[in-house]
């Protein structure tokens, strides 16, 4: 049979899926800025004279933008357009990274980390809604599983690549390189991602206040957002401090970066698995409970059980891998449990805001716990387990609320 070229619709579908996959790469680029601090933290501590708790705030300062602006940015994105919001965020990230490297001081590094947090939020918040707009429904859960991996995959790249760059130069070099990469992503976004559709003048639009009320008035939105914050706080704390923990044990910077990258990258396996399991009909709240319960057990095994170093590493690896079931599940639930299609972005924005709260609070809480125990990391698990247990309770509430709806549709 003669080969026939794909029709216009098939070509459009392929282009849309290609754009969606590129948006995952854009999210990974934003994640590089979040996770560029952990491999550089020993250098920053030595150069800026930071204490352990101050280092915890440096890790979490990038969350300040999301902490205060998640929902407001989502509301603005609905008006200016999702693609424009992503482009603006990439511009902020590139500028803040350049200025942070050029005007280096402890205060300015913290300020520009906060600015980068705004940029990360403006990039990551609109992308799930953009993917939903681009991708056919039958492929959505699997691509959202891939999107849930943007943070761990970006973490792997920066922990490995960042450690290598830091072995060649100082932390400012790393900041400059990431600024250049981000500018490249901005230019490719202009080329590959379709422009925002013009607003339909004949269709009534909800006011920003109506969108905010609909979002914050939904119990389901609050449940998934709070679970995201509880998950993100413990994951950020454990992965963020791993290079410091390894350095205290005498592990070299490059080896510490490699081990931390392996642990962070394992999280992507859980995200991809969640996408496939959801596609095959597994209930989302089951995946949430399984992921968070495993994190409790593994955190105790890694830090509190006094196991050998090899067993501790396996426990942290499983902590991250099975914990990866949580973020991908929450992103899919956000798309399905948003009160209306118009509140998809604001639901994601509120999730990001609660996630930023968790990531801002998590590292200092763990650092405080370690300081209270005399600098012993074995009590780390008590702080992370408290986060996970609260998340399990909220996930069970999602399951209980889903049962009446399921019975009503039978």
TrEMBL record:
Membrane topology: Multi-pass membrane protein
Major facilitator superfamily (MFS) profile domain location: 19-403
A GO MF term: transmembrane transporter activity
GO CC terms of this entry: plasma membrane
Transmembrane segments: 15-35, 55-77, 84-103, 109-131, 143-167, 173-193, 214-233, 245-270, 282-303, 309-335, 379-400
UniProt main location, coarse: membrane
CDD domains xref list: MFS (cd06174)
Keywords tagged on the record: Cell membrane, Membrane, Transmembrane, Transmembrane helix
Location relative to the cell: Cell membrane
PROSITE patterns: MFS (PS50850)
InterPro entries reported for this sequence: MFS, MFS_dom, MFS_Efflux_Transporters, MFS_trans_sf
PANTHER family documented for this protein: CHLORAMPHENICOL EFFLUX PUMP RV0191, PURINE EFFLUX PUMP PBUE
Protein name stated in the entry: MFS transporter
């Amino acid at each position: 049979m003669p080969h026939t070229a794909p029709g216009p619709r098939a070509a459009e579908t392929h282009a849309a899926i290609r754009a969606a996959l590129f948006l995952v790469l854009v999210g990974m680029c934003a994640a590089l800025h979040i996770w560029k601090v952990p491999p550089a933290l020993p250098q920053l501590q030595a150069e800026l004279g930071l204490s352990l708790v101050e280092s915890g705030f440096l890790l979490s300062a990038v969350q300040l933008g999301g902490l205060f602006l998640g929902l407001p940015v989502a509301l603005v994105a609905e008006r200016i357009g999702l693609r424009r919001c992503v482009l603006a965020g990439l511009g902020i990230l590139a500028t803040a990274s350049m200025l942070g490297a050029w005007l280096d001081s402890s205060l300015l590094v913290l300020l520009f980390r906060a600015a980068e947090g705004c940029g990360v939020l403006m990039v990551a918040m609109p992308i799930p809604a953009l993917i939903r707009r681009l991708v056919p429904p039958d492929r959505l859960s699997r691509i959202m599983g891939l999107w849930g991996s943007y943070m761990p995959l970006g973490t792997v790249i920066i922990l490995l690549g960042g450690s290598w760059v830091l072995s060649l130069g100082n932390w400012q070099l790393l900041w400059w390189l990431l600024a250049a990469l981000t500018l490249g992503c901005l230019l490719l976004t202009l080329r590959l991602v379709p422009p925002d559709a013009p607003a339909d003048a004949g269709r009534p639009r909800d006011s920003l206040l109506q969108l905010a009320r609909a979002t914050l008035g939904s119990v389901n939105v609050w449940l998934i957002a709070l679970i995201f914050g509880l998950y993100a706080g413990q994951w950020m704390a454990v992965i963020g401090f791993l290079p410091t923990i390894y350095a205290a044990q005498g592990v070299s910077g490059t080896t510490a970066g490699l081990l931390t990258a392996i642990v962070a990258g394992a999280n992507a396996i859980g995200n991809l698995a969640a996408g496939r399991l959801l596609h095959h009909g597994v209930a989302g709240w089951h995946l949430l409970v399984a992921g968070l319960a495993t994190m409790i057990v593994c955190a105790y095994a890694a830090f509190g059980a006094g196991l050998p170093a090899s067993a501790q590493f396996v426990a942290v690896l499983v902590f991250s891998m099975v914990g990866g079931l949580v973020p991908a599940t929450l992103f899919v639930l956000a798309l399905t449990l948003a009160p209306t299609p118009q509140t998809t972005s604001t639901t994601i924005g509120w999730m990001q805001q609660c996630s930023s709260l968790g990531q801002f609070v998590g590292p200092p809480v763990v650092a405080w716990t370690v300081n209270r125990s005399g600098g012993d990391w074995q009590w780390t698990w008590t702080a992370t387990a408290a986060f996970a247990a609260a998340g399990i309770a909220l996930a069970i509430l999602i399951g209980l609320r889903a049962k009446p709806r399921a019975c009503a549709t039978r």
